[in-house]
């Protein structure tokens, strides 16, 4: 799931770059005709994935902070291992 999310994020970032067309207007000088799309749109293209990465990291570190079953078994934390396994697998399915 993580690899799919990364791939979709790269694709969305590439789509955000589509509005950037070459700017050519011979009727105005460069100082007066520069708009947000020409000068600052790169900040939008880079900030959206950065914000999503910060949200994902925050969720992983503070909300979904579970150790893997292998790590719990290695640390001899069998009570936590049993609790985690009961969240993953229902007892009637085993």
Give the SSE layout.
Layout: H1 2-16, H2 30-33, H3 36-39, H4 41-63, H5 69-74, H6 78-88
Helix pairs in contact: 1-4
Question: What can you see in these coordinates?
Answer:
This protein is mostly helical. It has two domains: 1-63, no CATH class; 65-94, no CATH class. Helix content is 67%, strand content 0%. It has helices at residues 2-16, 30-33, 36-39, 41-63, 69-74, 78-88. The radius of gyration is 24 Å and the shape is rod-shaped. The mean pLDDT is 78.
Distance between the termini: 25 Å
Strand elements, count: 0
Number of domains: 2
Sheet bearing the most strands, described?
none
Mean pLDDT: 78
List keywords for this structure.
rod-shaped; mainly alpha
Provide a concise account of the structure shown.
This protein has helices at residues 2-16, 30-33, 36-39, 41-63, 69-74, 78-88.
């Amino acid at each position: 799931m993580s690899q799919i999310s990364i791939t979709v994020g790269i694709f969305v970032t590439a789509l955000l770059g589509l509005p950037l067309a070459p700017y050519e207007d011979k009727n105005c000088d460069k100082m007066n005709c520069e708009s947000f799309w020409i000068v600052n749109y790169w900040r939008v293209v880079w900030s959206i994935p950065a914000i999503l990465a910060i949200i994902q990291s925050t969720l992983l570190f503070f909300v979904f902070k579970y150790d893997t079953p292998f790590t719990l078994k290695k640390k001899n934390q069998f009570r936590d291992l049993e609790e985690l396994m009961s969240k993953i697998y229902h007892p009637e399915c085993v």
